[in-house]
Amino acid sequence: MSSSGHRITHVSDTARWTALHRANESARPDALFSDPLAERLAGEHGRAIVDNAPWRQRSGWWLVARTKLIDDVIAEAIAAGCDRVLNLAAGLDTRPYRLELPPNLVWIEADLPQLLAEKTELLADQTPRCRLTRTAVDLIDPVARCAFLDEALDGASKALVLTEGLLMYLDDRDVVGLANAVKRPEVAWWMVNFTGPELKKTMNNRIAGMRQNAPFKFAPENGVAFFEELGWRTLEVQSLLAAAHRFRRLPLLMRPIAWLRQPDPRRPGRKPFAVVALLTH
Ligand SMILES: C[S@@+](CC[C@H](N)C(=O)[O-])C[C@H]1O[C@@H](n2cnc3c(N)ncnc32)[C@H](O)[C@@H]1O
User: Fold this and answer.
1) Model's pTM, two decimal places?
2) What is the mean pLDDT of the chain?
3) Among 155, 203, 217, 242, which one has the highest count of C-beta atoms within 10 angstroms of its own C-beta?
């Protein structure tokens, strides 16, 4: 993983990119959330990735909407008795430091080793608001993933699993493997986000280094039905475009798209499609 330049040179650099968008949102007087550590974590590399993206990709409206929607789902899950959070591919997310959380809540972050080591160092002077631990694991390695889940879910009965900004970087077969692995009795909810085939093309063509080093792969033609066919049930699905419009974060030129009927979440077709979905089983 590189820590310089303006390109995405490894999939873990995408975590710097999303952190920078959280930093930018946090700096607004009308911020939808406050992530004071995001700037430090994104670093110069995160800023350079965003500064060098085409202007249409620079505002990060999709990331701001996604963050806010997932923050709200976490609060609702905790109110409904969630007793553990597993943030898979947590990247440089800082929710354990910035959300109001029960101090006894067990929160486990998983990601690739180098990224987690860097994050732990950068946050060494910070205290989380709950019981936070981190585990380095390659989430597409079935054996390592199974061992991780056995340990991470031990003693839980109503866990929330987050995979925010992960699935698009995986092959379909790895998403199937993950979907089956997470379907355990201790898991009450699985929060996913993904795009449709059209946005996959756009993203791979427009962000420097994306197509070569962290291409979008998973973008199911059948939207949430992909997960339903694997035994998951959709509790809630929200369009990021519609949410960004509601939150007043959609760039002016995109607003007319938000006035149109949003794509069918089970058949997005060629329309721009990016959603967060809360699943259960
Ligand atoms: C776009 S970032 C998302 C980070 C964070 N969830 C967020 O929303 O800001 C993608 C993350 O997936 C992680 N990742 C990609 N492939 C992975 C794998 N096979 N196992 C574990 N983590 C992985 C990367 O290291 C990176 O932190």
Assistant:
1) 0.96
2) 94
3) 203
